Amino acid sequence: MEQSKEGELDQFDMKILDTVAENGRISVTELAEKVGLSKTPVTARFRRLIEDGFILGFRAVLNTRKLGLDHVAFAEVKLTDTREDALQEFNRAVRRIREVEECHMIAGRFDYLLKVRTQNIRRYREVLGEKISSLPHVASTSTSVVMQSVKEL
């Protein structure tokens, strides 16, 4: 069986990635069955995919509803300064806000899109007013509240 070259992915590598993305706790035996290879080459490929940086890590997906964190809002953030130093300062500061689940720099009418998860709208208002609005170089924000999450990771 031909192994893919370093940095290149073949159909078996892609099947491994698809499978572990769906279930990171799958056993090597089950993974080998799904991929259609024996355990030894699947294990070698899996390790290579980790070493080559195609797999960055594993994490638990928490039930946010049971944790009382089912309020999601998206905050659009416009900055006063978009020079590199200002962007880096904003990036460092936003990473420290626990309630910000995702932060993306956007090309468009605003500079960043933040996914914010809190217990309720009252707590979101506190996070927006006390944390997000006081981030470096924030000029303005606009919020969209999620009514229903149809697909999430």
UniProtKB/TrEMBL annotation:
<keyword id="KW-0010">Activator</keyword>
<dbReference type="GO" id="GO:0043200">
    <property type="term" value="P:response to amino acid"/>
</dbReference>
<dbReference type="InterPro" id="IPR011008">
    <property type="entry name" value="Dimeric_a/b-barrel"/>
</dbReference>
<keyword id="KW-0805">Transcription regulation</keyword>
<dbReference type="GO" id="GO:0005829">
    <property type="term" value="C:cytosol"/>
</dbReference>
<dbReference type="Pfam" id="PF01037">
    <property type="entry name" value="AsnC_trans_reg"/>
</dbReference>
<keyword id="KW-0804">Transcription</keyword>
<dbReference type="InterPro" id="IPR036390">
    <property type="entry name" value="WH_DNA-bd_sf"/>
</dbReference>
<dbReference type="InterPro" id="IPR036388">
    <property type="entry name" value="WH-like_DNA-bd_sf"/>
</dbReference>
<dbReference type="InterPro" id="IPR019888">
    <property type="entry name" value="Tscrpt_reg_AsnC-like"/>
</dbReference>
<feature type="domain" description="HTH asnC-type">
    <location>
        <begin position="9"/>
        <end position="70"/>
    </location>
</feature>
<protein>
    <submittedName>
        <fullName>Lrp/AsnC ligand binding domain-containing protein</fullName>
    </submittedName>
</protein>
<dbReference type="GO" id="GO:0043565">
    <property type="term" value="F:sequence-specific DNA binding"/>
</dbReference>
<keyword id="KW-0238">DNA-binding</keyword>
<dbReference type="Pfam" id="PF13412">
    <property type="entry name" value="HTH_24"/>
</dbReference>
<dbReference type="InterPro" id="IPR019887">
    <property type="entry name" value="Tscrpt_reg_AsnC/Lrp_C"/>
</dbReference>
<dbReference type="InterPro" id="IPR000485">
    <property type="entry name" value="AsnC-type_HTH_dom"/>
</dbReference>
<dbReference type="GO" id="GO:0006355">
    <property type="term" value="P:regulation of DNA-templated transcription"/>
</dbReference>
<dbReference type="InterPro" id="IPR011991">
    <property type="entry name" value="ArsR-like_HTH"/>
</dbReference>
